[in-house]
Write a structure and sequence with these properties.
Oligomer: single chain
Shape: rod-shaped
Distance between the termini: 143 Å
Structural class: alpha+beta
Largest sheet: 4 strands, antiparallel
Helix content: 25-40%
Strand content: 25-35%
Number of helices: 9
Radius of gyration: 43 Å
Strand order of the largest sheet: 3-5-8-7
Length: 431
């Protein structure tokens, strides 16, 4: 049987063995943040909990020039001082508490150092130039702008536009430029930096898409007629981009087919294959477009980009009449020639009507067209004669024998006119 003294001694030994651990747990549970407990246990001396060792969030880092990154010294027990080995490669932008924000400036390497409690911690930063442009394509309406920005470099690019008449450049900063849309077309904006060429293709469209052919136009003075001319050009020519020679041929073909169509006495619904189409001018939508077109034309006139007066429009079956007539309306040589003149004038091609005599000595009208610095003869109404002579030819009834001819052509078919009545041709004569 144990005596009282032996039991007391054993309990004392147990208490001395487990008490330090128990006290440590109890102290840690109620310890304020940031404090390290120091416990004094009889027979053991002071017991201290070890603090976590400070360490950087990254020892190596890759940064693109012009961008920012943040580095943190975790578990820092004192104030941290940050430095960079090369300000030109990686610069310190700001510091906050245990963190630092750096910016890559140019390609190279720099060491970021954090000093805390007499100890240093380093991070190797590699800066790369990876220039990028904010966008590679842009679609703008005339008068609108878009901002382009080059990132991934701190160098200043050399900016250039391939067509200053379509899109101009306005400097905002060394790596930021504003692109302004001036007229319909396409321009390539290039920024050359660090040996790399960055490109943004800018497509500019008119404020109202049917204004494609309105630049440098000549007007008949009748708003609805001018709108109809615009619609014909849009229908027949499609989008701008072809050569003037092709545009002239397409409009010649259109009028020639209409002339043949009328000569046969057909209605517009019976021969759609010849390019016939009509506009419902009583439609609210059409009238809205006509009003918008009238406002645009007013600006064109005030800016000097357009002028009124073709000289022969009063003799013509106007484009509006042709496109709004439910049935056919008679188109003789005068109507065909004047419509052809109006259409070419609308797209900026000089064209006049000539009155003279035909092979049989009868009165006849045809056109003279200015192209490449010379005048050419176009007898658009005469195509229907060729059609009747060869209705199954490979051109679908059109021979184009009377398109862009010279004075030898007039002589061969015995066409005559008083040259003095057309001084604009008299200066150079027909080709």
């Amino acid at each position: 049987m144990m005596t009282t003294d032996r039991i007391s001694n054993r309990c004392g030994r147990l208490i001395r063995r487990f008490l330090p651990a128990l006290l440590l747990v109890l102290c840690l549970c109620g310890l304020p943040a940031g404090e390290t407990p120091a416990l004094l246990v009889k027979g053991l001396g002071p017991v201290t909990a070890q603090a976590a060792t400070p360490s950087l969030s990254a020892k190596t880092l890759t940064v693109t020039a012009g961008t920012k990154k943040t580095i943190t010294l975790n578990n820092a027990s004192a104030q941290v001082k940050w430095t960079t080995s090369d300000e030109k490669v990686a610069a310190i932008v700001s510091t906050e508490g245990k963190s630092v924000t750096i910016r890559g400036k140019k390609a190279g390497k720099a060491t970021i150092t954090a000093k805390c409690a007499k100890k240093s911690y380093t991070c190797t930063v590699t800066v790369k130039n990876v220039p990028k442009i904010s966008q590679t394509t842009a679609s703008l309406k005339v008068g609108k702008t878009v901002e382009l920005k080059v990132t991934g470099t701190m160098s200043a690019p050399k900016w250039k536009t391939s067509n200053a008449k379509v899109a101009s450049l306005v400097k905002i900063g060394p790596r930021r430029y504003k692109v302004k849309a001036l007229k319909a077309g396409t321009a390539k904006i290039t920024a050359v930096v660090n040996g790399k060429t960055l490109v943004c293709t800018v497509k500019v469209t008119a404020v109202w898409k049917n204004y494609q052919w309105a630049d440098k136009m000549y007007l008949t003075g009748n708003t609805e007629n001018d709108y109809a001319l615009e619609m014909i050009c849009r229908k027949v020519l499609g989008k701008p981009g072809q050569s003037k020679r092709i545009q002239i041929k397409k409009l010649y073909s259109y009028v020639a087919r209409l002339s043949t169509h009328y000569a046969e006495g057909r209605t517009n619904t019976g021969n759609k294959s010849r390019g016939w189409f009509r506009i419902n001018f009583s439609s609210a939508t059409v009238q809205k477009n006509v009003d918008a077109y009238a406002a645009f034309v007013k600006k064109q006139l005030s800016s000097g980009k357009a002028r009124v007066g073709n000289g022969m429009e009063e003799l013509s079956d106007s484009a509006m009449d042709i496109l709004s007539d439910k049935n056919y309306c008679y188109m003789d040589c005068i109507g065909a020639s004047c419509l052809f003149q109006e259409l070419l004038s609308h797209i900026g091609v000089k064209c006049i009507c000539i009155w003279g005599t035909s092979t049989a000595g009868n009165g006849h009208m045809w056109n003279a067209v200015r192209y490449g610095g010379k005048w050419y003869c176009c007898d658009v109404d005469g195509e229907n004669w060729d059609y009747y002579m060869d209705p199954a030819n490979k051109n679908g009834g059109l021979t184009y024998y009377r398109l862009m001819c010279g004075k030898d052509y007039l002589k061969s078919i015995n066409y005559k006119y008083n040259a003095k009545e057309y001084p604009v041709i008299e200066k150079t004569g027909l080709k």
